[in-house]
Amino acid sequence: MPIADLNDAERAVAAALAHGRAVDLRAGDPDADDPAGAASWDAGRTVRGEVLAGLLLGGFDEPAAQPRLILAGARITGVLHLAFAELAFPVTFQGCAFDAAPDLYHARTRFLSLSGSLLPGLTASNVQVEGNLRLAGTRVTGELRLPGGRISGNLVLNGARLSHPSGTALNGEHLDVAGHLRAQDGFACDGTLVLASARIGGAVELDGARLNAPGGTALEASNLIVQVGLFARDVEADGEVSVRFARVSGPLTLRGSRIRRPGGLALRATGLNAEAGLFLAGVTAEGQVRLNRSVIGGTLGLEGARLSAPGGLVVAADGITVNGSLLAWRGLRAEGEFSMLDATVTGPVHFEGATLVNPGGAALSANGLSVGKVLNLCDGFSARGRIRLTSAQIGSRLCLDDATLAAPDEVALKCWRLEVRELALRPAAPVEGMVDLRYARIGVLRDDPGGWPRAMRMDGLSYEVLDPMLPAARRLRWLRTDPDGYLPGAYEQLAAMYRRLGGDADARETLLAGQRQRRAALPWYARFWGHLQDVTVGYGFRPLRAAAWLLALLAAGTAVFGLDVPPPLKAGEAPPFHALVYTLDLLLPIIDLGQEKAYNPQGGAQWLAWGLIMAGWVLATTIAAGLTRSLRRT
User: Is the pTM here over 0.70, yes or no?
Assistant: First the structure.
């Protein structure tokens, strides 16, 4: 275009471009220079887009030419069309207003800055910037398109305001940034911020950002790869934040952020790999936090978080692997089900002081959980809803001391097939609901008689030590909390522990109580026989009782037959009568002492003799049955 056809502003640009001098068209008044009021700027600040493109693409033949565009305070009319252009020099717009979205599709340049400018959009798909792309303080009222772009330096969006409601505000899909992506210092995005499948060689910095996509996705960063870390502290996000299958070589932190997606997904992080930890401390999330099958290195931090999805899954972390610690303590409150099915945590898991609320449902679902060290649900931990730890494996200790568990008329704590070295079950108040310890394998079980639940299922429960070491009379009340009634294994397990620790008397008392408990469920004739065994020999566990009965009957028979000597069956042939020996001969059903067959008592003495014979058979039978049972137990 001939120089005569250029306006003053365009001539100034043409004159300054080859030598890299700045062209500043601003008035010097911040209000007057605001690009939002560009419609009122005078004609002296107008540069046509086609003219500017022609100037940028023109040759620079001057020997001393060092081209660079530095343009401030200009209004760019028409389309700045630079698609497929190659600009071997930096391009800087400062506080400019564009009437139409610039077209930089597949363009290549050394450096590009649109800081403080106003654009109705930007088309820069597959753009290549061999340096920084600066959009600091830029306002974009349409879509900012950067898919497939390559930036060898940093992408700077600090203080930028992107607005494309109900659509994509920034499309950075497959974007490749060698340096950092910075979007802080008041950065706001009204519409979806897309970084799906992008590669960031440095850090993604979103601290303090405001992301607004109500009912939709505020941040779409699925399959994102970040080398240094993703920092999104104190972010306000109205809409879903998605980092599913993202890989962050450093930490990923949302500390203190607020995410709103009621009834939907607040944080979608399925398959996330955060190699230096995931930090959600102080996060407020209205909606589900989904961490299924994620791999977290170091720490998963949820301290003081406020998570809300009433009646649904508030945390879905099934199959998650944490190669370190899970810190869900210090004021964590989760409304809804906190699910960690088949999760693995190589270090400790801390829920001290946490509150889980899901009445009528599961507050904590951790079936198949594997914890390398301690699992602490203690020191102020509270759960309104069921806790499920079926088949969980705890490397060290499961602590429920000073906890509050409430699931009335339900299984409040299910530890079916739990494996743990130590279980501390001393809650702040008796558990409201049932405790299920069936088939659990516990090294040391520490409890408090004052905190025993009203119902505890213990079939198949095995343990090595109970602490405190209560006498059998008190421990039997513990066994009777099982609503399934008499369970032989439960009594035998308790007796085995007493016997192993030298408490033989307590072991016998436990087994005797078990037989008495069993007797209640037998038919009447079996109950009669059971009562007989109990009275006579205590089911074999009170052998001295049989001796006492024998001595009492022997004394009674000796006294009666000593006063009323029975006549001999054959006069002159009977051996001399001895009341003690005669009574023994009646009582001992197998041994023949020659007295019983020689004498024939009459009247009441005969009834006594028959009674002694029957008593002898009963004693012999019950002693044999009791000894057999006792030997089998040992």
Answer: yes
